[in-house]
Specification:
alpha/beta; Immunoglobulin-like; 3 domains; TIM Barrel; eight-stranded parallel sheet; 530 residues; Oligo-1,6-glucosidase, domain 2
Length: 530
């Protein structure tokens, strides 16, 4: 059982520490390689904890490191209670948690409850047992349509492209909303729920501080598995199509209540769900007092670099959590989306805008999720076809390039690949040669670097009284701009997305994302004032 005596005094404080925490997402394959195989691992993360403490983050979110055949780079889990040898072993995980706590950094891990790997022992048993068996009841097997059963049970499509059903030799079909190697579990089966509870307790007992729940709006399927309405482009997991029956079914909330009940027995732990829903009330349902502590909010990811769009995203996000009394969460990038330097235009313009949006994000009340490498200003990488590994590339018939471009290994030091990420010449995804100016080493002592901006902003956020208060007050502002104040703290954040300089709001400049123009706020710039 988790004991407060296992943790440092700062970590052991049993409180809702997560309500204003800054989390740092570690894409484990791409963070740091300790054994020279070109793939990041747990000991690699441990070797960089000093950097993360210097950056100023409160907690880590680790992507899956469990035993897996890696069809979807770990999100196809064969054993959720063990470490895949490519990342280390359980002893390495225990070392990482212990050392992170010594650095006063909490550790949260990914949970993948919607599906398992097709090499999970349960699915292999299901294939052997045949139709109608108890083993198959743990998954979603169905007879096909048509006189000979040769058509899928319904018209659902996979998020990764192609049909969401695969036929097995005895004629039945199994459901996989993602890759065929990721069969969906049947959450109406009591053994499925009992196994997740066992997994939760396994990692909580090892000292983890919480979970990020993958596809938290999935798991529960609609009764009868009805056909979906097919549009010009079939909706996927990132879709806001209200006609999509595959996600956000009411039965999912019973699952989250079970998860919360387990976690309430481990004080000081938390769970955040990946929730892709548009309606504020539907979002709020996931973060009720007996469900998830937090819900991932993707509105800033979806908003372009436009003051009106960003303000709308902020207001909707705050309205959604106001219905439940939980804090908002904010993120600009993650392992599934194009990095925001690239989304905002790429090059010097994209970097300038990314700096501005960093100050906007970090000025907001609630919880921050940073994605590894964003503090270095990393752009998306246009990888050659031969290097692509995301299952979307193959499943789409080479029409969708997938997510590899945001997952390229971190450049730490030096002037050429692998930039201190590994001793291997060839890393699992190739790094661009021109990243020498983006390494952590190159940026640490440069006061004008993206890394220095993050460090200074995070230090202010943690120590400055201006960041108190969970409500915002908006100022009048010129077209293409906005300014808001943190009620209770007094910090003012202003953003200019117009094409011309505008007068600054009243106050003393605390931090700006770029050079100022006297008492004017230049285009593509944000500023904090007190």
């Amino acid at each position: 059982m988790r004991r407060s005596s296992d943790l440092t005094p700062e970590i052991a404080e049993e409180s809702a520490w997560w309500r204003d925490a800054v989390f740092y997402q570690v894409y484990v394959r791409s963070f740091a390689d300790s054994n020279g195989d070109g793939v990041g691992d747990l000991d690699g993360i441990r070797s960089r904890l000093g950097y993360l403490e210097l950056l100023g983050v409160d907690a880590l979110w680790l992507t899956p490191f469990y035993r897996s055949p890696m069809a979807d780079h770990g999100y196809d889990v064969a054993d959720p209670r063990d470490v895949d040898p490519i990342f280390g072993d359980l002893a390495a995980f225990d070392r990482l948690v212990a050392d992170a706590h010594e650095h006063n950094i909490r550790v949260t891990v990914d949970l993948v409850p919607n599906h398992s790997s097709d090499l999970h022992e349960w699915f292999q048993e299901a294939l052997q047992a045949g139709p109608g068996s108890m083993e198959r009841a743990r998954y979603i097997f169905r007879e096909g349509r048509g006189f000979d059963g040769s058509q899928p049970p319904n018209n659902w499509t996979s998020v990764f492209g192609g049909p969401a059903w695969t036929r097995v030799p005895d004629g039945q079909w199994y459901l996989h909303l993602f890759a065929p190697e990721q069969p969906d579990l049947n959450w109406e089966h009591p053994e499925v729920r009992a196994d997740l509870e066992r997994t939760l307790r396994f990692w909580l007992d090892r000292g983890v501080d919480g979970f990020r729940i993958d596809v938290a709006h999935g798991m529960a399927k609609p009764e009868g598995l009805p056909d979906m309405e097919i549009r010009v482009q079939a909706p996927g997991v990132l879709s806001d199509d209200v006609h999509d029956p595959r996600f956000d079914n009411d039965g999912v909330h019973e699952i989250h209540r079970m998860i919360r009940k387990v976690m309430d027995g481990y004080p000081g732990t938390m769970a955040v769900g990946e929730i892709w829903v548009k309606d504020d009330e539907r979002f709020a349902a996931y973060v009720r007092p007996d469900e998830l502590h937090l819900g991932f909010n993707f509105r800033l990811v979806e908003a372009g670099f436009d003051a009106d769009a960003v303000r709308t995203a902020i207001e909707h996000s705050l309205a959604a959590v106001a219905l439940s009394g939980t804090p908002a969460t904010w993120t600009l990038s993650n392992h599934d989306v194009v990095r925001h330097v690239t989304r905002y235009g790429g090059g010097a313009l994209g970097e300038q805008r990314a700096r501005a949006m960093t100050l906007v994000e970090l000025a907001l009340p609630g919880v921050i999720y940073l994605y590894n490498g964003e503090e270095l200003g990393l752009p998306n990488v246009e990888l050659p076809d031969w290097a692509l590994q995301d299952p979307t590339w193959e499943r789409s018939g080479h029409t969708e390039r997938g997510r590899d471009g945001c997952r390229v290994p971190i450049p730490w030091e030096g002037t050429s690949p692998p930039f201190g990420f590994s001793t291997a010449v060839n890393t699992w995804l190739p790094q661009p040669n021109e990243w020498d100016h983006l390494t952590a080493e190159a940026q640490l002592e440069d006061p004008g670097s993206m890394l220095s901006l993050y460090r200074e902003a995070l230090e202010h956020r943690k120590s400055n009284a201006g960041f108190a208060g969970e409500e915002l007050e908006w100022y009048g502002a010129p077209a293409g701009c906005f300014a808001f104040r943190r009620k209770g703290g007094g910090l003012i954040c202003a953003l200019n997305t117009s094409g011309a300089s505008v007068p600054l709001p009243p106050g003393q400049v605390l931090l700006s994302s770029g050079p100022m123009d006297g008492d004017q706020l230049p285009p593509d710039t944000a500023v904090w004032l007190v």
